[in-house]
Specification:
The complex is a heterodimer. Chain A contains three helices and no strands. Chain A is elongated, with a radius of gyration of 16 Å. In chain A, helix 1 packs parallel to helix 3. Helix content of chain A is 71%, strand content 0%. Chain B is α+β, with helices and mostly antiparallel strands. Chain B has four domains: 183 residues, no CATH class; 82 residues, no CATH class; 112 residues, no CATH class; 143 residues, no CATH class. In chain B, strand 6 and strand 7 form a beta hairpin. The chains are: A mainly alpha, B alpha+beta. At the A-B interface, helix 1 and helix 2 of A face helix 1, helix 6, helix 8, helix 9 and helix 10 of B.
Chain lengths: 102, 550
């Protein structure tokens, strides 16, 4: 990404933001519906309608993050914020999967 | 107020997601709009048959007995009993048998139908039903690319379509209050097209959001489920999946004979136990056995949902409910929500009003992508000044040709392949294969034609092709009526006549578009890719390079 990284100015960074939205948006969507699967009503043993519904919720989050990711100040900040959100969400998900509901 | 540079970036995002996805989305929306009437199209395309009425419900027990005796596979895997008497139900009962194959290998199925001869014996025949309507649905789901890749391609395109929606709304926000519903008809054609594009997009926005989300989820279900299984469930999803299929599984036969309850009585018992249920058809398994069952797919009044998943299972001996966990009102809340999402995609609620609304919303969506491409071209148009002559850029000419070829090729291809259902029936061995062949030949031929002749000329040619092909749908029915020796048919039900009427109105619309386009290419401004005239005059003045990606 060209330009001065210290600058506070808003920059288009079209590829940086789009890649963050597509990749990290999917990660965030997957981990959030994962948390719903463990913590939602009925828990992980809920009937199979659960994972049929999850794909719609997943795409809802994915599309929203991908669509709005261009509002970030720069590609770098998009990767930083979404990366942090991914880390937290996946940490919570894996805590559920391997520790609390193992 | 949103900052101008953000709006500018979103305009770029909207433009490029729109241009890359527009073609596939046009095809998906046009074929999808027709799929709202998949059943009437299937009925229109089905040849005259023995029909359901040939065996009254009271005589069905004997028919089922004979079929179960004649085909052990049908007895074990299911004999389908039809109830409605539609033209695409060839006889009272149908069933499938495996084609000869090696054990464990993938294989096709032979479709059989069965009825009673006047002397009470079984008349059974293998006959492949028309898959025309399923093929149109397939084009809608996979734009004609073989599975599974077509689904993946459409999944990614639907995702980008969702992004394009968000970007389009953000682009429009600053001027929304000022310009909304203002259609500036006038000499500035681009302004008018943009206003129309915005009004159609914004008013149908809830529909588009619902379609974008559900289309992505439905197209990518395979990969999404696989990701869920690996990352979230870690093996649990497969277990849940098995549990989920239990309610659909028929009880195992016990090998003891028993008297079967007559279907008329079974339907009566069903009505007593589940009053709001509307059965579609009945599937008998292990007929004659003490553990024989009948599965009844159908819908429940007051509930959104696809009839494939919803249903009840009765004992074929006593008519008692064995299982009704899959009918809509008994589904778990997550399944209910998921079914509602699916219903939102397929327009499976509120009957024909919503079906028609979805039909027109689908067509308006197709128009949205078509007009979006035209706007891209107009934005890059180089204007002739002072009688000067300009060459439009290569990219606008190519996009113009591609837009005309893909959009009109899809329309013409579908119409021609619908017409073929009647003309080729009984004249070719594998009609369902021919439907695909015809569609691809017309579609690819139209695309080639559009590139060979350029957007302006080919638009007129192909619009007349669309008009002729679509008009041929009702004309074929008329020909079948007037000349019985052609060996074709003209059904009289409202649904099938409706197909002819809608096709006739569609042909009038295409004809009107052909006349209007003809006028524009001959008398419209010459400095456009939509003109066949060459503006004469001196050499073109130097144009500033088109701004990259507006």
């Amino acid at each position: 990404m060209p330009g001065d990284s210290r600058s506070d100015a808003w920059r288009p960074d079209w590829w940086g933001k789009a890649s963050a939205g597509a990749i990290l948006g999917f990660g965030l969507a997957l981990s959030l519906v994962g948390l719903y699967a463990y913590l939602g009503p009925g828990g992980i043993e809920a009937p199979g309608g659960r994972y049929s519904l999850m794909r719609y919720l997943e795409v809802f989050v994915w599309t929203a993050v991908f669509g709005f990711c261009f509002l970030f100040r720069s590609g770098r900040s998009a990767w930083a914020w979404l990366g942090a959100a991914n880390l937290i969400a996946f940490a919570a998900l894996f805590a559920c999967r391997f520790v609390f509901f193992a | 107020m949103i900052r101008a540079d953000i709006v500018r970036l979103y305009k770029t995002v909207h433009t490029w997601t729109g241009i890359t996805c527009g073609f596939a989305l046009f095809i998906a929306f046009y074929a999808g709009a027709l799929t709202m009437f998949q059943e009437p199209i299937a009925r229109w395309a089905s040849p005259p048959a023995v029909g359901v009425a040939a065996v009254p419900l009271d005589d069905v027990p004997r028919l089922l007995e004979l079929v179960a005796a004649a085909s052990p596979q049908a007895r074990a895997e299911g004999i389908k009993l039809h109830l409605r008497g539609h033209e695409n139900e060839p006889a009272r009962v149908t069933w499938e048998e495996d084609e000869p194959h090696e054990a464990g290998q993938p294989h096709g199925h032979v479709h059989w139908w069965g009825t009673l001869n006047p002397d009470g014996t079984l008349l059974a025949k293998p006959e492949e039903p028309s898959e025309l309507a399923e093929f149109i649905n397939d084009i809608h789901m996979r734009v004609g690319i073989p599975r599974p890749w077509g689904s993946y391609v459409m999944g990614v395109i639907s995702l980008l379509y969702g992004v394009a929606l968000i970007a389009g709304v953000i682009t429009l926000l600053p001027s929304l209050v000022k310009d909304f519903l203002e259609l500036r008809v006038g000499t500035n054609l681009k302004r008018m097209w943009l206003d129309a594009h915005n009004v159609v997009g914004i008013t149908a926005l809830p529909f588009h959001i619902a379609i974008a989300i559900t289309a992505t989820a439905l197209s990518l279900s395979g990969p999404l489920w696989s990701a869920q299984e690996h990352v979230i469930f870690g093996g649990k999803q497969a277990i849940l999946d098995k549990l989920d299929n239990v309610p659909y599984r028929a009880p195992k036969p016990v090998g003891e004979a028993a008297a079967m309850m007559a279907p008329a009585q079974l339907l009566q018992k069903l009505k007593e136990q589940v009053p709001d249920f509307e059965p579609r058809f009945l599937i008998f398994k292990n007929f004659g056995d003490k553990a024989a069952s009948v599965r009844v797919p159908g819908s429940e009044r007051g509930y959104v949902g696809d009839y494939h998943l919803g249903g009840v299972m009765l004992s074929a001996v006593t008519g008692e409910l064995i299982n009704d966990r899959t009918r809509p009102s008994r589904q778990d809340p997550d399944r209910r929500a998921s079914e509602t999402f699916y219903g939102l995609h397929a327009g499976h609620y509120q009957g024909s009003t919503v079906a028609w609304a979805y039909f027109f919303l689908g067509l308006s969506g197709a128009w949205l992508f078509y007009s979006g491409n035209l706007l891209w071209i107009e934005t890059r148009r180089k204007t002739a000044r002072k009688g000067g002559k300009v060459e439009q850029s290569r990219s606008t000419r190519l996009l113009g040709s591609a837009t005309i070829g893909v959009c009109l090729g899809c329309v013409a291809g579908i119409s021609v392949t619908i017409v073929a259902a009647k003309w080729l029936h009984g004249r070719v061995a594998d009609l369902n294969h021919w439907h695909e062949l015809i569609y691809y030949v017309v579609f690819l031929g139209s695309v080639a034609w559009a590139f060979a002749w350029g957007a302006a000329r080919s638009a007129v040619h192909l619009l007349w092709l669309c008009t002729a092909a679509t008009a041929a749908i009702p004309l074929t029915t008329l020909a079948a009526l007037l000349f019985p020796m052609l060996g074709m048919w003209a059904h009289g039900s409202i649904a099938t006549v409706g197909v002819d009427v809608v096709a006739f109105i569609g042909a009038l619309c295409f004809g009107w578009m052909a006349v209007a386009t003809q006028r524009r290419v001959t008398t419209g401004p010459a400095d456009s890719i939509w003109s066949v005239r060459k503006a004469d005059g001196a050499r073109p003045p130097r144009e500033p390079a088109a701004a990259p990606a507006e």
